Every structure is written in structure tokens, then in C-alpha cells.
Amino acid sequence: xxxxxxxxxxxxxxxxxxxxxxxxxxxxxxxxxxxxxxxxxxxxxxxxxxxxxxxxxxxxxxxxxxxxxxxxxxxxxxxxxxxxxxxxxxxxxxxxxxxxxxxxxxxxxxxxxxxxxxxxxxxxxxxxxxxxxxxxxxxxxxxxxxxxxxxxxxxxxxxxxxxxxxxxxxxxxxxxxxxxxxxxxxxxxxxxxxxxxxxxxxxxxxxxxxxxxxxxxxxxxxxxxxxxxxxxxxxxxxxxxxxxxxxxxxxxxxxxxxxxxxxxxxxxxxxxxxxxxxxxxxxxxxxxxxxxxxxxxxxxxxxxxxxxxxxxxxxxxxxxxxxxxxxxxxxxxxxxxxxxxxxxxxxxxxxxxxxxxxxxxxxxxxxxxxxx
Length: 372
What we know:
The protein is of the alpha/beta class. It has eleven helices and 17 strands. The chain has helices spanning about 10-25, 50-55, 95-105, 150-155, 210-215, 220-225, 230-240, 285-305, 310-340, 340-350, 355-365; strands at about 1-10, 30, 45, 65-75, 80-90, 110, 115-120, 125-130, 135-145, 165-175, 180-190, 190-195, 205-210, 240-245, 250-255, 260-265, 265-270.
């Protein structure tokens, strides 16, 4: 059987694209190596910009936590708070992925719970091979397999040749006093972390740290106690909080290098196409938005006889860059500033006198509500 689209990766971007395309009567198959539901290293704060699109797809998000305020602090504890221009909601990946998965199942999307070994483009279609040797064929392909994969090596993506020195860590905690409506971003030596409540009442703490800082201790509990807790806000949180995971989740070799939106004719979505720094708190919304862009263009490709593959890929690159290029660039600049404590404190002093300036900076990493 020849599918219209093979989607490699069943996270936010992959599942959203599967739902969108199936609602447009396209034959879709999704490859995901883990059964649902499962936790992922993720900030779990979603910008409200994607709500119109989720409504269009008839996806109901219930019990999420409304978030309208940002708290930010530097390594030494200098702090500021402001209302978010658009706001967002807190929901765990465990729950959100499950909601999208069930919606896709209701639509009769085909799922294969195996890792993909290779994706080969030949004779104007794709041959997708799983680790078990299963072969599946599709006219088009979406890569939505996350931050990095062995597939990136197979596809000879440029960023894989560069050393990646970032480690991501995530865990849920019970905390007696954390405010429902707040997303907090706190610096510490060599990294920064985000705190926000999820639909269960648990507080998600997800942080990113440069490995050069982490390797001094090489143990998450010791690192949290010795380095993360140098920030007084994080120290108070970790002192008062009760861990809910047996062990924190972690992912190594996270790369923020530029990536290609199209590789070997595969349309890349979400983190697979470009990773925004977690301090910008918007990766989940960007993943869903990128699925919308890819899905709408694929529908045009299937339905418009004048649109060939070259035009499809050119249009996707252009629209992806227009939607996310500047946001990724400003995210890299903000990270560079905020990881230098002297600069971070200087910026803090400036924005503390001008809340409008802080809200302006936030807007640079967030989009407007998606037009549907």
C-alpha cells in the first residue's frame, strides 16, 4: 500500500500533522518508537497562539492550567515579574500527547510502534524501513522525531557533525505554594530552568545545562543541590518540593545549531527542524504550528496539479523561515545574554524599570494567534 504521507515521530508535530491530513482524507502512517502515554523532557508550557488551530482540528484541551504571568530571576536571585502578552497553558506531554493520539486513532490513522532505521527517496516516493525490517512506502514524508536521532546521521544533516554540549533534565514535583498562573524562568551557573504547573497539579521543572558545568558532579541530585540551588528561588523550590518521579528524565547532546527545514525531500517539523531555547518557553506551540504549515502545503501538493515537489519544498522552507526564523535567532541571542551573569543583571536592571520592554522581548519569541 502506498500512503500519502509517512510521519516519522509521534510527538506534538507528528500527531498534529496526522490529524490535520487525515481530516483532509489523506492516507497517513505514523512511526513512533514508544507506546502512549509517556513523559518527555519538555517545558510543558504552551503559548495560547495555537488555540485557534486546535479548535479548528476539533481538539479539546481540558483541565490545563491557565498561565498569564512570567517570573524571571538571574543566578544571584535578582528577580522581575510581568504579565504575559498572550498567555498560555500548562499541560504535561504525558497528557497532551495522549489527547492527540486518541484523536488520531479515532480518525483511523495507522500507527507503527517501531523506530525508523532509514528513509530513502527514490522514484518520486519514500521507502521507510523500521528496525524490524518492515518496509512502508509513502508519496511524501514528514520528519518529526525530535531533537536528534540516528536518522540525522543517516540523512547526513550538517548539525550532527558539530559537538553538542547541552543536557536537558526534567521531573515533576509536588509543591505546596507554587502559583497556578505562573511560568518561572530561573538562571543558574551554566544553565537555566523553567517551572510551571501541569493539569495534575504537579509542577514541572525542566532545565538545560551546559555539559561543561554538569560534568563537575555528573549526578543530577548532587548537581541540583550544589549548582542549581545557588539560585535562591530554585533552592527554595527544591527544598520545599517533593519529587514525583523515581528518577529525573534526561537527554544529552541537545543541539541548537541551525537545521534544514527540508532534508532529502523530507519536510522537517518541530524540534527536528529547529530547536528554540527553553528560556523562550515556546517550543511546544512552534511544533504544532509547524505541523499546520506542512499539512496545508501537503494538501495543496496533492490537490493542485500545478504544484510539483520542488515548489512544495521551496514553499515550506519559505513559510517555515517566515514563521520561526527570527524567533530562533532572537532566542539564541537571549540565551547568550542570560548565561552571562553580568549581562543578565544589566538587562534585569534595564527591564525592571520598563515592564513594557520586557513584554516586548517576550513577544519576539512568541507568535500571534494562528489564523485558521
